[in-house]
Specification:
Largest sheet: 2 strands, parallel
Structural class: mainly alpha
Order of helices and strands: EHEHHH
Low-confidence stretches: 87-96
Number of strands: 2
Radius of gyration: 14 Å
Strand order of the largest sheet: 1-2
Strand content: 5-15%
Number of helices: 4
Distance between the termini: 21 Å
Protein backbone atom coordinates (compact mmCIF):
# COMPACT_ATOMS: atom_id res chain seq x y z
CA UNK A 1 0.00 0.00 0.00
CA UNK A 2 1.24 3.46 -0.88
CA UNK A 3 -0.25 6.64 0.60
CA UNK A 4 0.44 10.19 -0.52
CA UNK A 5 1.91 9.36 -3.92
CA UNK A 6 2.56 12.53 -5.93
CA UNK A 7 4.17 11.45 -9.18
CA UNK A 8 4.52 7.95 -10.63
CA UNK A 9 6.25 7.40 -13.94
CA UNK A 10 5.53 4.43 -16.22
CA UNK A 11 8.41 2.30 -14.85
CA UNK A 12 7.33 2.92 -11.24
CA UNK A 13 3.73 2.09 -12.13
CA UNK A 14 4.88 -1.22 -13.62
CA UNK A 15 7.02 -2.01 -10.55
CA UNK A 16 4.05 -1.30 -8.27
CA UNK A 17 1.85 -3.60 -10.36
CA UNK A 18 4.50 -6.35 -10.44
CA UNK A 19 5.05 -6.10 -6.69
CA UNK A 20 1.35 -6.71 -6.13
CA UNK A 21 0.67 -3.40 -4.40
CA UNK A 22 -3.12 -3.41 -4.34
CA UNK A 23 -3.83 -0.02 -2.79
CA UNK A 24 -2.35 3.27 -3.98
CA UNK A 25 -3.65 6.54 -2.54
CA UNK A 26 -2.41 9.68 -4.26
CA UNK A 27 -2.13 13.21 -2.93
CA UNK A 28 -5.11 13.94 -5.15
CA UNK A 29 -7.09 11.31 -3.21
CA UNK A 30 -6.09 13.05 0.02
CA UNK A 31 -6.87 16.51 -1.36
CA UNK A 32 -10.28 15.47 -2.69
CA UNK A 33 -11.41 12.99 -0.02
CA UNK A 34 -9.49 14.20 3.04
CA UNK A 35 -6.73 12.56 5.05
CA UNK A 36 -9.14 11.08 7.58
CA UNK A 37 -11.17 9.23 4.94
CA UNK A 38 -8.09 7.96 3.12
CA UNK A 39 -6.40 6.80 6.33
CA UNK A 40 -9.53 5.05 7.63
CA UNK A 41 -9.86 3.20 4.33
CA UNK A 42 -6.13 2.41 4.23
CA UNK A 43 -6.10 1.08 7.80
CA UNK A 44 -9.10 -1.16 7.08
CA UNK A 45 -7.35 -2.51 3.98
CA UNK A 46 -4.01 -2.96 5.79
CA UNK A 47 -5.69 -4.85 8.62
CA UNK A 48 -7.52 -7.40 6.44
CA UNK A 49 -5.87 -10.79 6.65
CA UNK A 50 -2.56 -9.49 7.99
CA UNK A 51 -0.64 -9.74 11.23
CA UNK A 52 0.20 -6.02 11.04
CA UNK A 53 1.81 -3.40 8.89
CA UNK A 54 4.99 -1.33 8.57
CA UNK A 55 5.14 2.43 8.11
CA UNK A 56 7.90 4.03 6.07
CA UNK A 57 8.19 7.76 5.34
CA UNK A 58 9.95 9.42 2.42
CA UNK A 59 12.40 12.10 3.47
CA UNK A 60 10.96 14.80 1.20
CA UNK A 61 8.41 15.85 3.81
CA UNK A 62 11.05 16.72 6.44
CA UNK A 63 11.90 20.39 6.87
CA UNK A 64 15.51 20.99 5.75
CA UNK A 65 16.12 22.93 8.98
CA UNK A 66 15.44 19.70 10.92
CA UNK A 67 17.49 17.55 8.53
CA UNK A 68 20.14 19.87 7.02
CA UNK A 69 21.59 17.20 4.73
CA UNK A 70 18.23 16.85 3.02
CA UNK A 71 16.84 19.30 0.45
CA UNK A 72 13.33 18.52 -0.83
CA UNK A 73 12.75 18.57 -4.56
CA UNK A 74 9.67 20.74 -4.24
CA UNK A 75 7.91 22.73 -1.56
CA UNK A 76 4.78 20.57 -1.88
CA UNK A 77 6.82 17.64 -0.56
CA UNK A 78 6.40 19.07 2.92
CA UNK A 79 2.80 18.50 4.04
CA UNK A 80 0.61 21.15 5.55
CA UNK A 81 -0.97 20.57 8.95
CA UNK A 82 -4.17 19.60 7.11
CA UNK A 83 -2.33 16.78 5.34
CA UNK A 84 -0.76 15.27 8.44
CA UNK A 85 -3.67 15.84 10.82
CA UNK A 86 -5.90 12.79 10.15
CA UNK A 87 -9.07 14.22 11.62
CA UNK A 88 -8.92 17.31 9.40
CA UNK A 89 -10.78 16.51 6.19
CA UNK A 90 -10.72 19.84 4.35
CA UNK A 91 -9.02 19.88 0.93
CA UNK A 92 -5.39 20.97 0.75
CA UNK A 93 -3.38 22.70 -1.90
CA UNK A 94 -2.23 20.72 -4.92
CA UNK A 95 1.08 18.90 -4.79
CA UNK A 96 3.86 18.86 -7.39
Amino acid sequence: MLIGVRDIDAAERENIRRAGVAEVYTMRDIDERGMRTVMEEALRAAGRGTAGYHVSLDMDWIDPEDAPAWAPRCAAGRPTVRRIWPWRSSPTTAAC
